């Protein structure tokens, strides 16, 4: 290599060394205080005392427990498109405090997750003014009013709401409650407006109803027990399916007009196991050991493929299936070991066919004006519409 090229290389290295030596070194010590994950904004009582007002959309994270103050909520959301991650921390109320988190005006697309709200003198979460809200993985405990209250088109999932002075969970129209547990609330465990879906929830020992909803609701896969009202009560056009109602102080499952209850169990309730108004379907259900009739139905109702047993246990003389109204079809049910009638028909123009009646005080009693399949004592030679009736 020629000497000129070595000289040029040496000069280049000297220039690079000078540049490196002159570069400023960064501060290796982070600023004091909690560090928010990238893209999140910090919520901290140390820097902003309650009420913390959120006025800009964004993703916020709580960095420590928060204790309320009198005459204020913990956090107020005053804008759309807000997510609050409670980050596993607790928001605790004090005497005179209002709600843990509150939407005072119209604010939509709110998400609250992953924390505890307890001991507030208002609600735990008061999001009733918001639409399209999501509440998930929240424990609401010992708040004076509702544990969790959310607005239209909301989702409440994987939450626990206990010992609140109002409803455990309260949702407005077209909302979904899934995978939640409510207990020891002074109001209903779960209360929904029209068109709600409540799925895979447990509601027990509430001082009112376990689950209650308005028209066109869908209640699926839920367990309700030991509530002071009915276990499940729904208004017109609703479906209750794959649910269990046990030891409730009123009816196990109570339906308004044009409803269906399918593949449910109602056991040891104080009133009826299953009660319907008019134009309902009761199918493939089991109702037993209720103090009232196992199944009691109103006008224009079909009861099919159900087991109704042991009605009136402890008080006596209650029917397996009670037909209060007219124009019902009671078909292919098993009514066994009831303290009163297997089937009692109090109205007219009903059709009673293909039922199995065994060991009831009276297998079947009906007023005149009904169409009843012959009571046969053996399936051998019985007609296709006969009822099979076996004495005690």
Structure at a glance:
This protein is mainly beta and 392 residues long.
Distance between the termini: 118 Å
- What Rg is obtained from the alpha carbons, in whole angstroms? 31 Å
Proportion of residues in extended strands: 35-45%
Helix content: under 10%
Largest sheet: 30 strands, parallel
**DSSP strand tally:** 45
The DSSP helix count reads 1
Unreliable residue runs = 1-36
Query: What is the average of the pLDDT values?
Result: 91
Structural class: mainly beta
Which shape, going by the Cα principal axes? elongated
In total, how many domains does the architecture comprise?
A: 2
Features:
2 domains, 1 helix, 45 strands, 392 residues, single chain, 15-stranded parallel beta sheet, disordered N terminus, elongated, mainly beta
Describe the structure in your own words.
This protein has two domains: 38-208, no CATH class; 228-392, Pectate Lyase C-like (3 Solenoid). It contains one helix and 45 strands. It is mainly beta and 392 residues long. Helices cover 5% and strands 39% of the residues. The strands form two sheets. The protein has a 30-stranded parallel beta sheet that branches. A 15-stranded parallel beta sheet has the order 2-5-8-10-12-15-18-21-24-27-30-33-36-39-42, with no helix packed on it. The radius of gyration is 31 Å and the shape is elongated. The protein starts with a helix and ends with a strand.
